[in-house]
């Protein structure tokens, strides 16, 4: 969807207050992280060496969204400001916005946002993930001021799935059906009224689609596996899986998205021939560049000998979850939301187990008490540098040392 032009009630380019909010945004910077970057992304204290991935933390889209929220508060100091869900998936950043008097509107699981409290004089911020077409239209009809921080990478995916729908292709979206971004992307498929989509979480679900394409399964299997949460209204596998275009939530594992696209294309070719694959299948890598760079950087870091890997970011942050999953394939991995999860006194860490949804654990003596130890570190695209620095200090403190 091409964003509407700027107007007196709709803003996508901020308010020209970048310089005015820089002092506030400086709170997210981290001197310790800057020091490590200047020292080949490494820090050694005593017998502990911490290696930082070369791409980590805040991406451009996140920086832009957070900055626009701060500009909005500065522009409208006396107005009620409401954020449609979390601006990004980082509890610390969202808490900072609440402290500025920005209300965060929650969406009950499985339900839509309730905008009944929004008044025309209010200011509403749309998050970096974007919102559904239906939510956008409802807010526009209310007449309130809208500040749209939707990430450009997300907009690119929207354009892609809209083109699929326009050409009669069903959008097969690799993503999490409950995630804000995927919900918004799926809504773009319906922009023209007749488009269809199907959301697959992983390769196992993609293979269910492949089995149907190759007629090893019937339409009932699709309906039972995906309806109603992950398919468009009126979806009929017998009709709407004839022409398929693959897209993805921008923060998924890039290699899995590419593999899913290849698997679907190969299934069409096996079932209908090469000509059908060329005519009835499309795929594009719509993983955002920042997500790809962070995944590539962590894979590079994992080539080094490491005793443990710490991944910092919200437990509901998709790109952080993807980073943790990559790390867990090679080394003991601890996904923490913040430095507070690391308790040096108890020598414990509270973390989420990579790859296991919503399962959190506490582990004592997660680092050996003595001897040389090498810890790898990365952070999701919504984690600010000051929070990364705090985690580094606590990791070192677990071994009784401090940064020099």
Descriptive overview:
With 404 residues, the protein is of the alpha/beta class. The chain has 15 helices and 17 strands. The strands form four sheets. Strands 1-7-6-4-5 form a five-stranded parallel β-sheet. Strands 2-3-17-12-13 form a five-stranded mixed β-sheet, sandwiched between helices. A four-stranded parallel β-sheet has the order 9-8-10-11, sandwiched between helices. Helix 7 links the parallel strand 8 (170-174) and strand 9. The model has no long low-confidence stretch (mean pLDDT 94).
Topology, please?
Elements lengths: L9 E2 L6 H8 L5 H8 L3 E4 L2 E5 L7 H16 L5 E4 L6 H9 L2 E4 L17 E4 L6 H10 L2 E4 L3 H15 L3 E5 L5 H10 L7 E4 L2 H11 L5 H8 L10 H4 L3 E5 L5 H19 L1 H7 E3 L5 H13 L6 E5 L5 H11 L4 E4 L5 E2 L4 E5 L7 E5 L8 E7 L5 H14 L6
Parallel strand pairs: 1-7, 3-17, 4-5, 4-6, 6-7, 8-9, 8-10, 10-11, 12-13, 12-17
Antiparallel strand pairs: 2-3, 14-15, 15-16
Largest sheet: 5 strands, parallel
Please give the radius of gyration in angstroms: 23 Å
- Tell me what portion of residues adopts beta-strand conformation: 15-25%
Helix content: 40-55%
Q: Could you say what the CATH architecture of the largest domain is?
A: 3-Layer(aba) Sandwich
Q: What's the tally of helices?
A: 15
Alpha-carbon distance between the termini?
51 Å
Quickly count the domains.
Answer: 3
**Overall mean pLDDT score?**
94
CATH H-level homologous superfamily name of the largest domain: 4-hydroxy-3-methylbut-2-enyl diphosphate reductase, catalytic domain
Overall spatial form: globular
The CATH topology of the largest domain corresponds to: Cobalt-precorrin-4 Transmethylase, domain 1
The largest sheet has its strands arranged as: 1-7-6-4-5
Provide the structure class.
Answer: alpha/beta
Low-confidence stretches: none
Number of strands: 17
- The CATH class of the largest domain, by name, is Alpha Beta
């Amino acid at each position: 969807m091409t964003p509407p032009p700027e107007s007196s009630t709709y803003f996508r380019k901020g308010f020209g207050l970048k310089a005015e909010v820089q002092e506030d945004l400086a709170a997210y910077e981290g001197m310790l992280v800057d020091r490590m970057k200047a020292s080949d992304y490494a820090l050694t204290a005593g017998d502990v060496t911490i290696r930082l991935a070369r791409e980590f933390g805040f991406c451009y889209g996140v920086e832009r969204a957070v900055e626009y929220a701060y500009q909005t508060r500065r522009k409208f100091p006396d107005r009620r400001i409401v954020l449609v869900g979390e601006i990004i998936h980082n509890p610390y950043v969202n808490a900072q916005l609440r402290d500025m008097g920005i209300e965060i509107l929650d969406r009950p699981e499985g339900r839509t946002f309730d905008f009944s409290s929004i008044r025309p004089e209010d200011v509403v911020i749309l998050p970096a993930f974007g919102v559904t077409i239906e939510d956008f239209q409802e807010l526009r009809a209310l007449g309130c001021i809208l500040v749209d921080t939707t990430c450009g990478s997300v907009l690119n995916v929207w354009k892609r799935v809209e083109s699929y729908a326009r050409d009669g292709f069903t959008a097969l979206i690799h993503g999490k059906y409950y995630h804000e971004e995927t919900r918004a992307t799926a809504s773009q498929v319906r922009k023209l009224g007749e488009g269809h989509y199907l959301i697959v979480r992983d390769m196992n679900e993609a293979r269910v689609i492949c089995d149907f394409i190759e007629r090893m399964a019937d339409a009932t299997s699709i309906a039972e596996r995906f309806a109603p949460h992950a398919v468009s209204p009126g979806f009929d596998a017998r009709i709407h899986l004839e022409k398929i275009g693959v897209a993805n939530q921008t923060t998924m594992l890039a290699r899995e998205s590419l593999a899913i696209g290849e698997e679907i294309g190969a299934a069409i070719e096996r079932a209908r021939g090469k000509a059908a694959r060329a005519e009835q299948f499309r795929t594009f890598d719509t993983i955002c560049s920042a997500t790809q760079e962070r995944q590539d950087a962590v894979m590079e870091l994992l080539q080094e000998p490491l005793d443990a890997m710490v991944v910092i970011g919200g437990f509901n942050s998709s790109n952080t979850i993807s980073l943790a999953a990559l790390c867990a394939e090679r080394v003991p991995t601890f996904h923490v939301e913040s430095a507070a999860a690391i308790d040096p006194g108890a020598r414990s860490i509270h973390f989420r187990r990579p790859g296991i949804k919503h399962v959190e654990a506490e582990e004592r003596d997660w680092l050996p008490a003595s001897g040389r130890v090498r810890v790898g570190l990365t952070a999701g695209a919504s984690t600010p540098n000051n929070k990364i620095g705090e985690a580094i200090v606590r990791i070192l403190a677990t071994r009784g040392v401090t940064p020099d």
